[in-house]
Specification:
This protein is of the alpha/beta class and 238 residues long. It has 5 helices and 11 strands, in the order ββββαβββαββαβαβα. 28% of the residues lie in helices and 29% in strands. Strands 1, 2, 3, 4, 5, 6, 7, 8, 9, 10 and 11 form an 11-stranded mixed sheet that branches. The longest helix has 26 residues. The termini are close together.
């Protein structure tokens, strides 16, 4: 079974049929999942902000979400998200499939009570699948690699913060680093595909407006969904 984890616009784009909403109890709390069929394949979907869109980034229970996916037999997960662009030379909107990430602040782990060290990272084989599909069908430009910088949220970043982190990363978001870390700790392969819908605060003189970010992300999410649908077909093959 393939897992898909998405943001607030995932529920607005009907991805699966025969939807069954479930809640699973895990050692880390309750997880909400939607089970269904995508092109004849069983998939499990997590809406990271909750069905009621009431979980801000700093309160998402990544441990419960991914533990629940693993308990259902999920071994591969595609993340979807919206990210701010840190590069003035990038023309947006665009698709980016990050190859690495920086996450100094979340401290998210499933190993609160044991001494375990895991080397984190995105799964390269899943990245290649997402890239091959994106380059074939995306209506937006595709950026093949980049570093994702995760901030804690829920607030957006200051101009000074962006001026610093743009020296080390290509896009900025609030969730993919935590998801990648927890997935790796649980033995789940994970990669993320992001739409870059806006320039981060101060890039090209941009003034960040949350309502504008949401509007643009909603417009571009459909393109991302189509890529994920095609990628699931390929990932389901032996």
């Amino acid at each position: 079974m393939i897992g898909i984890v998405g943001g607030t616009h995932l529920l607005e784009n009907k991805i699966i049929e025969e939807v069954k909403e479930i809640e699973l109890q895990t050692p880390f709390g309750t997880a909400e999942l939607d089970l269904g069929v995508l092109n004849g394949l069983e998939v499990a979907i997590v809406q990271r902000h909750g069905r009621r869109k009431d979980k801000p980034p700093h309160r998402i229970n990544h441990q419960a979400n991914f533990y629940a996916l693993k308990s259902l037999g999920v071994t591969k997960v595609i993340g979807m998200g919206s990210a701010g662009c840190l590069r003035e030379e990038f023309e947006i909107p665009a698709i980016i499939v990050p190859h690495d990430y920086i996450d100094f602040f979340s401290g998210v782990t499933v190993f609160d009570n044991s001494l375990v060290y895991v080397t984190p990272g995105f799964d390269e084989e899943l990245r290649k699948v997402l890239l091959s599909v994106a380059k074939r069908i995306s209506k937006l430009p595709v950026i093949e690699k980049g570093v994702y910088f995760q901030t804690r949220g829920p607030r957006l970043e200051t101009i000074a913060e962006i001026a610093m982190i743009k020296n080390f990363a290509d896009c900025v978001g609030m969730t993919a680093g935590s998801e990648a870390t927890v997935a790796k700790e649980l033995g789940i392969r994970y990669a993320v595909i992001c739409t870059m819908d806006n320039y981060a605060h101060g890039i090209r003189g941009a003034k960040v407006d949350y309502e504008e970010i949401v509007r643009k992300a909603k417009e571009n999410a459909k393109n991302c969904v189509e890529i994920v649908k095609e990628a699931v077909k390929l990932l389901a093959k032996p």
